[in-house]
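Might you be able to check the backbone structure tokens below? Thank you kindly.
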Amino acid sequence: MKYTRLGIFSEKEHVSRGYATLLYDLSAQIDSNLIDQNENTFKTYDLIIIDFTTKKNRYLVDILINHYYQHAKIVVVSPYNLNEINTLLKSSECVDLFLTKPFDINRLTLFIQNHSRLIDRKMMLEAKNSILAEVVDLNPSRIAVFTSSGILFYANSHYLEANKIDISQIDILHFNTITKCKIGFEVLTYELKNSTSFMIQREEEKRWYESYFYRLSQDYIVHNCEDITLRKKYEIQLEQSAIFFEQSSEALMISNKNGSILSVNAAFCRITGYSKEEAIGETPKLLNSGMHDAAFYHSMWNSLIYNGRWQGEIWNKRKNGEIYPEWLSISKATSPKYNEEFYISVFTDISSIKETDRKLYFYANHDPLTGLANRVQFESQLKKTIDSAKRRNDKLGILFIDLDKFKEVNDTYGHTIGDMMLKSVTKRLSDSIRSDDFISRLGGDEFVIIASNINEYEGILALASKLSEAIREPIVIDGKVFFMTLSIGIAIYPEHGENSEDLIKHADAAMYEVKENGRNGYMLYHSSFSEKLTHKVETQNELKIALDEDQFELFYQPIIDLYTNKVMGAEALVRWHHPIKGLLYPASFISFIENSELIYEFGMLICKKAFRDLATFNARIKCDEPFSLSINIATKQFFEDNFVTKLSTLAEDFSVDPHQIELEILETQVMKNPEVAQIKFHDLHDLGFELALDDFGTGYSSLSYLKNFTIDKLKVDQSFVRDLLIDENDRAIVQTIITMSKIFNMRVQAEGVESSEHEAILKSMGCELAQGYLYSKPIPLEAFVDWCENYRVTNE
């Protein structure tokens, strides 16, 4: 009777000893005087024993029975029999047990015991249910129960809070209006038809949730939603680690403290050739190449034991027996769960890196096209050779070699032919030198040879002659035959320099002197060569400054129509206002510009100045026809890839009409690459520029090309005009040029007209235009404008 609450009601003042012995856990005893019809006086009992003795208290007994019968077992003990009780009591049908005195005490005891057991069980279940309800409610998971139709039947506090549900809404809301799961109730019930449970995961506001559904019989569905963010993060980390382990481009191997391989990845298999099945269970000795001694491995294990890591380069062996280099890192790790040591090895096959290093070393010291030593290796070798010559008191020679007219081959036939040409020349040079000579390509078409053990000048001169003869033999490339020559400058140690810098500089100066004297030869260094080279370098440096400070000015020489005697235009001729030497003519500096990269900047500067001055001519010089301005274009500038585009853009910037601009190109330079020239002539002519071949007659004068060129004018070189009056050959050449111009519908202009006799004979030959000192020397812009005005007034 642990939980049973017992009430005994008696008409007597004291309960009998028999009752006291039997009912040891009495809950209450009330006197008949305390019983009235006020329900507040009643206590709550589970079992009521009423001692009904006199008829006068029957109404009180009815009150007790009516009050307790719904929630307590009622036992009536009375001297009356059952029939009398039914007559006396209106509520006798609510009595659970009726005992007539004297009653069977065992029967009453058994009834009380049975009922107490039921009460105890009920109370125990209620206590457990209360605890279980509290456990469910306080569970961190969100738990809810839905009916088979989807109506919310129960939800713990976390579920209510997460879904913002009021407890009053239970038994009203449907699953589809509550849950944040991306699944409808119909789909859920369908899934649970085929399985006892169903699980989905979802992400919400950067947190992960797992919903687990299962049935309670057929009437209810339980929804358990759990925050699995930490677990998911751990799973993702594990998944990423697994992916990294398997997909890593570096080989990974895990072994235990005994050295047995526990796991390897795909890169391990790819590099070593062993499958996972073949490697797992073996030891790293499987890869031993035999190239390292015991001391190497002893040092490795000492580092692992005392430092917990080792890394370095090691040579291992693949399954096929191939030995390869790898960069290996080994780290010791301890499992926190089992306190067990592991070794994690990470290695990369560095065969390609080794090969790359070899190539990098090669290309750092060799020319990639020819395979010869480059400038870096050459300078290192030269210093070593000089040191050796000093110790032995020997001589050595430096041959600085330039391949003549190679740029013309490159520009005409392209870089592919040019590269093949350089390879062919390299082979011939290499085959011609002695075994202990050293050859290098410095870049472009420049080669240099170190000739050791030179006792007499004749020996190195003989070598230079042999090299020249080797190159003179025809070179055939792609069916084309080339005849090439060399310009070779020679410097001797110690006569021409005691260090590498002086020897290279002086050999280069000697080579430059050969170039100046017509190429195709060799020459020993002389101190005067350095003076020329120094002058060249100094002049080019001064020209760079002159460009930056705009020290150049255009002078203009008039062009006269021989038949109308009117000014038709002018030729722009550059002058340099040198800060020390004063006004310099092109003959003293133009070659230094044209043979350097300065020509591109210089050429565009001249065009800008001429375009700007054209506006002055148009405004102040009165002409019957538009004033024509002639500009000399250097060969490099003309053959520049974007020359046409740059010139067209410049004309637009200065609002210049291209028809007023005449571009003068040297015939001798154009004919070196007539195919490219023809395309550029066509493009320029389409833009409206006038085109003239300058110094015509001094070059090739190929009629086959001339007929295809879109040329507007031929300019007769002044060398033919100067002796026109006394030299019949010059007169015949000039007449031929004039006749050709008529045939090709071109105008013709004579340069160097210095006398009226020149003017008269040229006019008689049919020459249209002339320029020269007869009319005016080249003069500055303002002076030229004034001259034009005076000339017009004088000749009207």
The CA atoms of residues 409 and 415 lie 9 Å apart. Confidence is low (pLDDT under 50) at residues 13-41. Residues 105-138 form the longest helix (34 residues). The radius of gyration is 58 Å.
